[in-house]
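Sequence in, structure out.
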Amino acid sequence: MLASPSLPSRRFRVATLAVLLAASCAGPLAAQAPVTTRTPATPLVTHDPYFSLWSFADTANDQPTRHWTGTEQQLTGHVRVDGKLLRFLGGGRGEKMVQTVRAITPTHTVYDYEGAGVRLTATFFTPALPDDLDVLSRPVTYLSWTVRATDGQPHAVQLYFDASAMLAVDNEQQRVVWGTSRVGDMNVLRIGTSEQQVLQKVGDNVRIDWGWAQLAVPQQAGATTATIGEGDRGAFLEDKPVAADDLAMPRLAHQNRPLMAVRFNFGSVGATAATRRAMLAYDDLESLEYFKRRLPAYWRRGGMTMAELLLKAEAEETALRQRGEAFDRELTADLERVGGRQYAELAVVAYRQTLAAHKLVADINGLPLYFSKENFSNGCIGTVDLTYPSSPFFLLLNPTLLEAQMRPILDYASMPRWKFPFAPHDLGTYPHANGQVYGGGERSEDDQMPVEETGNMLLMLGALAKVRGNADFAERYWPLLERWATFLREKGLDPENQLSTDDFAGHLAHNTNLSVKAISALDAYSELARMLGKKADAARYRTTARQMAAKWLTMAKDGDHTRLAFDRPGTWSQKYNLVWDKLLGRNLFPKALLEDEVRFYLQNQQPFGLPLDSRKTYTKLDWITWSATLTDDRAAFEQLIAPVHKFMRETPTRVPLSDWYETTDGKQVGFQARSVVGGVYIKMLSDQALWKKWAGRAQARD
């Protein structure tokens, strides 16, 4: 039905671009300013691997909005000013408004437009606050639109927004149904598939086709909502009579594409700004399968319904916006203080992408479990060598989220069904976490990553213990960790022919960087043992790690740098795994080694960054940041980051930030929208005071 709430809009504080820019002048550092430079894609609605919408163009009104996979999931926006139709979002009819600024902060994307004598500010606010798991897990993005006259004249303004049925289907050949309900003072429109095959599909290039996309519109002056077909959009735009909600359902998603639509009649708008708002949400009913148990989203663990969530989200909007703005300013300022402006911009762009590549659910006991998805790298769920590169983000901003990623792997590896002496690679294919599917799976050691994943787990446990000041979490799994430490002691110094996290490069024997990981992981194990009062184990493994490190220095040396593999003179590779020796304060490797490596890296950069190693010219964005963090020389760090920032600004590949690209021309090689870009936050861990501040804030809420 058409719905036209008649009560006036309540006073509402909105984070406009003006607010964000003004905030940048409020403190001593310009670091608080938003990112306004070009990026490969722009995050709009970013919650999890299924509810993740982006603009793939420089201007938001140049083409349809898309799911991170590139499939169109259309959000469309228009304004009518004194009868003139202008488009500000997505594709479609109407002259394009002139986009003057696009600004990104950790939790906001804000666009400013001008046309026909008015300025429009469109804001997407996702309250992705990592220290508040209840809020972080909510699948709700706040939308707001603020208009004001710029020519001193009053203007009659209407604004239109719609979200298409494509948000709720894997492909346009699926049938959809829709409906409208009243929740508190809100009109809530929803669209979903008619079949609702919950958790039936697995895979990589797959979108959700169960649950309900929802557009919630609080009561405001001049608001009218309806579910219409795309063919009726023109009439709705022009304020012509439109029939009650389209009832021709179910129908294929592409047939007269169903739209959840809202129109706001602002009336006469002058120099005083006027704002309208809505919420875009997704109710996935059940989020994923964990060893054959279907688990709900974390926000649902106490039995909350979607209607109750929308009411709570609407009631807390003002407070959350204030928290979001404060969070954005403080984090951005700290990022710039530690690594410079270009580093800060890279980290801000990576922020929501990192979180949106995960899903936060509740186990049967209510504990949080956090699962990554390998976006466009095979679709695995809970991959250890995705958790490892993204771990700095969570070690900094909420260690509980890292623990929530590690717990499922530790529990799985403790089961009798996992028969190997090393750590698993993954838990299945998203959204089914029912056991490893990569390589030989549970069947054989073929194409496993034994040293890689085992080293990753021990290093992350060591870092977690450092930031928490205790090894309580590791103690629960000590017999398993003893087995892993034994494996690395026997197999880690000179790794056999095997895959590492950079598996696209193929198998490699005698991998020097992988050896560093094993050595540092054994040292992390020794520190865990010391923290748990296991003095003999601590002393034994500390000695072992020192002896292995000394051997490594001789075996890996190749003039002014170190080799790719112990048996390959004249080669080199990024030794990004050395960073943990520095960050954990273990000093197995001399500082001079780290500085020599960085000096060599600076001599081998390409226009868009440092190659991964001497075999190819492609690179990994996350590992460059780790390698740059090896140095204490701020100028050297910034020199390594500058080409990565150039890639972010100039890559011809328009997708959410890729972490695997060519250093010669900036083109994507593979991967996009992955969580590993959270690895750029590793530089923040080099400032012990900042690490303690941010992690301590999150732990105080636990």
